[in-house]
Amino acid sequence: MSLVTSNPSVPRGEPIHLVVEVTFPILGLSLPSNNGYPLLGAIARVMNGEYLTPGESLESIGGRGIEKGVIRVTEETRLRIRTFRPADICVGLGC
Q1: CA-based nearest residue to 68, from 18, 42, 32
Q2: How many other CB atoms sit within 10 Å of the CB of residue 81?
Q3: What pTM did the predictor assign?
Q4: I want to staple 63 with a disulfide (CB 3.0 to 4.6 A). Which of 50, 53, 54, 71 is the partner?
């Protein structure tokens, strides 16, 4: 999906890509506090080896620590991915 912008920081007539933040609830009781790379690897496995592309990002899951190196998962805990291809991400992760 792309749009043409009149934003002065983007050259006139150049397409821009919309970036959508997709969130997923996390189930379970706890997670390692350093979870960014393991999450990225897990996403690549379920998406047939495809990693996020430049311009996309994965936010590490934060939360309240329950012991050293472990965070508590609550009803509000979410995985956040910023992407310009939300349909592909949702299909890969089973939305």
Answers
A1: 32
A2: 21
A3: 0.70
A4: 71
